[in-house]
Amino acid sequence: MIPLLISSQIREADAFTIEQEPVTSVDLMERASKAFVDIFIKEFPDQDKSIVVYCGTGNNGGDGLAIARLLKRAHYPKVSVKIARFSDKASPDFKANLEKLKHTRIKLLEINAGAPLQEESSDIIIDALLGTGLNKPLQGDYARLVDALNQLNSTIVAVDVPTGFFTDGAPPAGATVLKTGLVITFQQPKINFLLPESASCMDRFKVADIGLNKSFIESLDSPYQLISKKDIRQLLKPRKSFDHKGTYGHALIIAGQQLTMGAALLCSSACAHTGAGLTTACIPESGLTALNTTLAEVMAIVRDGKNQPEIKWEKFNVVAAGPGLGTDADSLALLEKAFKEFNKPMVVDADALNMLAQKPEVLKNIPKGSIITPHMKEFDRLFGEHQSWWQRLETMRQKANELGIYILLKNRYTITGTPSGKLYFNATGNPAMASGGMGDVLTGVIASLLAQKYTSGEACIIGAYLHGKTGDELAMPHLLNTVLAGQLAKHIPVTLAKLMS
Ligand SMILES: NC(=O)C1=CN([C@@H]2O[C@H](COP(=O)(O)OP(=O)(O)OC[C@H]3O[C@@H](n4cnc5c(N)ncnc54)[C@H](O)[C@@H]3O)[C@@H](O)[C@H]2O)[C@@H](O)CC1
Ligand SMILES: Nc1ncnc2c1ncn2[C@@H]1O[C@H](COP(=O)(O)OP(=O)(O)O)[C@@H](O)[C@H]1O
Ligand SMILES: [K+]
Hints:
Layout: E1 2-3, H1 7-20, H2 25-43, E2 51-55, H3 59-73, E3 79-85, H4 92-102, E4 107-112, E5 124-128, H5 140-150, E6 155-159, E7 180-186, E8 202-208, H6 214-219, E9 224-226, H7 229-235, E10 250-254, H8 261-274, E11 278-284, H9 288-294, E12 299-303, E13 318-321, H10 329-341, E14 346-348, H11 350-358, H12 360-363, E15 371-372, H13 376-383, H14 389-403, E16 406-409, E17 414-417, E18 423-426, H15 438-451, H16 456-475, H17 485-500
Parallel strand pairs: 2-3, 2-5, 3-4, 5-6, 6-7, 7-8, 9-18, 10-11, 10-13, 11-12, 13-14, 14-15, 15-16
Antiparallel strand pairs: 1-9, 16-17, 17-18
Helix pairs in contact: 2-3, 3-4, 8-15, 8-17, 11-13, 15-16, 15-17, 16-17
The structure holds ligand NAX, adenosine-5'-diphosphate (ADP) and potassium ion (K).
Residues 60, 127-131, 158-161, 163 line the site of potassium ion.
């Protein structure tokens, strides 16, 4: 896991590294700037481009001055610097780097407070105005400058964070933020980069390792954690020679209606392909032929719409409910029965969540350790409207704890909230996966992992990673625009094999 820190903790990690390594703060700035430049050169190899570095007078500006000097040394001759002198204050490391810059032939211009802004025609703008030191929304000269740069439509690369961007906490509504194409950020992605609001001010980010003290970062025990491939490889359990289908558990998937049988098929297929020993689908009679012809491996329990099916709950290691299930009275009765009679963790998705939104008192009966897998709309239907994603994170931590469940909120970065208050961010997955049925597949994957005796926390972490990784393997090599859910389900064994190799 990669711990994700809030900005005050990043400052603590900076200070600890400076004291412990030991390294002077100006040398740490040099290291950070070099790490930035290494990535910049790979991204923008054309040395003929004109580059201007806009610098504030804090440490972000100090980085900017060092970056300009290092770019010149790396044979980018057309680099220049503009300093926004909007404050009387300047950090010591900014001043030290300004001295060093004066020994180069880099063109330097100062923009004074209140002065009219000059035209900007450089090919590339590097934004080193403000970084993680931002403590209020941009106003006055900074807001005016950022607004002007936003009008240019130029290529903008931010140092650490786009100027005006709050790295954690709910962003103030309507705040002015510089719109950047690429952010080269230090040490770790900032938490708000992983939330959808960031899309309005950055297309993508790259992380530059600046060697802050890792054991200190670990010791902060951040609730925000980014899942890495290494974690998944450590969690996955290899199969053993004498294992049999009983070893890998029996999953029951309660899903589907006449017009939404596809959801039941996709979920069941994903469950079987992820390796559950046995999969049974509880489906309407009208879906039986479809199931028997497309998924010969999956067994059925039929819901006939009049009588509740006889389900021997104790036969199953996991029950997943919701994909395409509909929200009629029979479906609700069956869900309530499952909550009462199945005493192991369940996976609850889609229409099952919509029913719970309509009858919130039922949610209190959800078996402890269960996993709910809402997308944003389902989440808000369940827990009320939210003004920001940061607010959703807070609700997740509170509700997961209150109900003793795992909440997996789906998005570009899917986030799992645990009863103990941790939030795990998953980075695999891509926009080719933005197509119907993809969530049904994820539900099947997670149910399958629970059947195979992974804990609920492990099932969420592995499930989100494996689902996204499979989508990446299908989409990336061919730059596919779309990956279909059924195609993804079938590819899971291949991705799983690679992760376990
Ligand atoms: N040793 C370190 O601390 C390191 C810091 N680094 C850089 O340092 C940056 C943080 O530097 P600073 O803490 O100096 O902060 P910034 O450079 O982000 O900001 C400078 C100052 O601007 C003022 N300010 C904040 N919000 C403002 C607003 N809305 N309008 C006008 N002024 C505002 C604050 O007084 C703040 O301290 C990081 O983003 C990174 O670029 C890197 O060099 C790595 C090492
Ligand atoms: N841009 C994206 N990047 C990464 N993953 C995505 C993206 N778009 C969709 N997904 C993934 O696809 C799934 C969609 O789930 P959901 O909205 O419930 O679909 P459905 O209801 O059609 O089954 C989620 O797991 C989500 O994380
Ligand atoms: K910046």
